[in-house]
Automatic annotation (TrEMBL):
Listed Pfam families: DUF4159
Signal peptide (from-to): 1-19
Domain DUF4159 residue range list: 23-213
Statement: the UniProt record of this protein carries the keyword Signal: yes
Protein name: DUF4159 domain-containing protein
Domain of life (superkingdom): Bacteria
Lineage: Bacteria, Pseudomonadati, Bacteroidota, Cytophagia, Cytophagales
Database matches in Gene3D superfamilies: Domain of unknown function DUF4159
Keywords for the protein's UniProt record, in alphabetical order: Signal
Organism of origin: Shiella aurantiaca
């Protein structure tokens, strides 16, 4: 019932008891810049509300990995360039959140990969990241990406990869690697990305948000 109510609120179906749905950025320890891409989520939210007719709260929340408040947010965004450390309690809390129906989107802002793979093993020691096929529903929501995750910023000449942790067949964590989606969501003045690249990034972000609230 909780997910049904969230879906109704997400799609803007007016019921007196349904408030706006909030999405959140994950605050973690270890020294990494969890606060990177400050304008990214507000721009993505605005894009979704305009082009998907959603009713997301205009500003993102900030939530700590080990907080009980984590369970309030159906979509949590994690980014940064540097070190990430989860305590045992934080890893357990994140696992319970994801098993309860939550969704974590990890967006490598360059330099996150070595740390996040180790820390997510604390959360799901039994799982490994796998690349989603290009025909996966996450690439075929409102916008179609026939070649999978789009490449927004170039770093090491590697292809963009949409990786996932699958628990009993469900995507509990989507990891956008070598793509820099969040940079593409930012205000144009920050990275001076071509408008077509920004649009690609926002459309892919909207697909991820829509996928979270779909009957996947």
């Amino acid at each position: 019932m909780y997910k049904i109510l969230l879906m109704l609120a997400f799609w803007g179906i007016s019921l007196p008891s349904i408030a706006q749905v909030e999405i959140a950025k994950l605050k973690y320890n270890g020294g990494g810049d969890w606060y990177a891409n400050k304008t990214a989520l507000p721009n993505l939210i605005s894009f979704c509300n305009t082009h998907l007719n959603t009713r997301l709260a205009k500003e993102e929340a900030i939530v700590e990995v080990g907080s009980v408040e984590l369970f309030q947010y159906p979509y949590v965004y994690m980014t940064g360039h540097g070190n990430v450390v989860f305590t045992r309690n934080e890893a357990d809390n994140l696992r319970q959140y994801l098993l309860a129906g939550g969704f974590l989107h990890i967006d490598d802002n360059y330099g996150l990969d070595a740390f996040i793979r180790l820390e997510m093993k604390k959360v799901f020691p039994e799982l490994d990241f796998v690349e989603l096929p290009w025909d996966h529903p996450i690439y075929r929501q409102k916008y179609t990406f026939p070649q999978g995750l789009p490449k927004i910023h170039e770093h090491d000449g590697k292809p963009a990869q949409g990786l996932a942790l699958l628990y009993e067949g469900r995507v509990v964590c989507f990891y956008s690697y070598e793509s820099d989606l969040g940079n593409g969501w930012e205000d144009p003045r920050i990275h001076n990305d071509p408008e077509e690249k920004r649009l690609e990034a926002l459309q892919m972000g909207a697909n991820i948000i829509a996928y979270v609230f779909s009957d996947n």
